[in-house]
Specification:
Elements (H helix, E strand, L loop, with lengths): L3 H14 L6 H14 L2 H12 L12 H10 L20 H18 L3 H21 L11 H7 L2 H11 L3 H19 L8 H15 L3
Helix pairs in contact: 1-3, 1-5, 2-3, 4-5, 5-8, 5-9, 5-10, 6-9, 7-9, 8-9
Pfam families: YidB
InterPro entries: YidB, YidB-like
C-alpha cells in the first residue's frame, strides 16, 4: 500500500475546512455526508459540491480528464470563495487549487508510463536530486522544485485550462503543481526505492477513478 489516498484525503479535508464562515455549516454537513458515502470518494464529492455551488454533476457527464477538471474547477473563484485575498499565494482557495491540480499531476505520471517512468523523466530533466529526496524515507524534508522546471514538464494547455476556470494566474497553477508533485511522489514511495511500482500505479488509477465522481 502507498500513502497516496491518505495524502489526497488530507488535501481534500483542508479544502473542506478552508471554506468561508458562511459555508461552515454546509462544510460540516457535507463532511458528514462524505463519511456516510464511504471514504475518499465521498470526501472528494463534498469538495466538488462546494466548489461548484452544489452543481458538481454538471461537469461530469462527458467523462475523462476534462470532465474531472471541470467538476473540480467549475466555480472555484465564484461565489463560494469570497474570502480569497489577492495578497496570498493562491488566495483563500489554496487547498482547493491543490485539489484541482491533482488530476493533472496523477495523469502526468500515468503518461510517463507510471511511477518509474515519471522518476526517469524527472532525472532526465535535471531533477534527480530532488526526486531522490522525495523517494528516500530517511530524508527529513522534500526538496523544493522550481516553477520553471514544472513548466517544462507539464502540458501548458492543461495548466491554462485550470487557470482560466479558476481565474487564477498560470503562475499560481504551476506553483500548486510544484507543491503537490513532491508530496505525491513521496506518498507513492513509502518504502523508498523498494516500494511496489505496481501498487503505486494501481493507487494512481484508483484516485483518478475517485476524482471522477460518479
Amino acid at each position: 500500500m502507498t500513502n497516496l489516498a491518505s495524502l489526497v484525503e488530507a488535501i481534500a479535508k483542508q479544502a473542506l475546512g478552508g471554506q468561508n464562515n458562511s459555508n461552515q455549516q454546509n462544510s460540516q454537513q457535507n463532511s458528514q455526508q462524505s463519511n456516510d458515502a464511504g471514504g475518499l470518494g465521498g470526501i472528494l464529492g463534498s469538495v466538488l459540491g462546494q466548489l461548484n455551488g452544489g452543481n458538481s454533476q454538471q461537469g461530469q457527464s462527458s467523462g475523462g480528464l476534462g470532465s474531472i477538471l471541470g467538476s473540480v474547477l467549475g466555480q472555484l473563484n465564484g461565489g463560494g470563495n469570497q474570502n480569497q485575498g489577492s495578497g496570498s499565494s493562491f488566495g483563500g482557495g489554496k487547498s482547493a487549487l491543490l485539489v484541482a491540480v491533482l488530476p493533472i499531476v496523477l495523469a502526468w505520471i500515468q503518461k510517463q508510463g507510471g511511477l518509474q517512468g515519471a522518476l526517469d523523466k524527472l532525472t532526465k530533466s535535471g531533477l534527480g536530486g530532488q526526486a531522490q529526496s522525495w523517494v528516500d524515507p530517511n530524508t527529513a524534508q522534500n526538496q523544493n522544485v522550481e516553477e520553471q522546471h514544472v513548466e517544462q514538464l507539464f502540458d501548458d494547455q492543461d495548466v491554462e485550462q485550470v487557470a482560466n476556470q479558476t481565474n487564477e494566474s498560470k503562475q499560481n497553477v504551476y506553483a500548486a503543481i510544484a507543491t503537490v508533485l513532491p508530496q505525491i511522489i513521496d506518498s507513492l514511495t513509502p518504502q523508498g526505492q523498494s516500494s511496489s511500482q505496481s501498487e503505486a500505479n494501481n493507487d494512481i488509477q484508483n484516485i483518478l477513478n475517485s476524482l471522477n465522481i460518479r
